[in-house]
Amino acid sequence: MDASKLCVRAKLQLSTLQRAENTDSTPPITIAQAANIQAVCEAAGVVFDPGGIGVRLQRDPE
């Protein structure tokens, strides 16, 4: 999924996502915006590790 699709699904402006991506500190977005981004990513199969350290793709059930 590209950034523009993520923004549409998370109901964000592309400039908001770009600002969040281009910082080395706390992203300048709201908790609600971060939750929307996470929900869209999780729906696409991304698993956020507990503790917020990393992510991985969900494995297909065997």
Automatic annotation (TrEMBL):
<protein>
    <submittedName>
        <fullName>Uncharacterized protein</fullName>
    </submittedName>
</protein>
<dbReference type="InterPro" id="IPR010982">
    <property type="entry name" value="Lambda_DNA-bd_dom_sf"/>
</dbReference>
<dbReference type="GO" id="GO:0003677">
    <property type="term" value="F:DNA binding"/>
</dbReference>
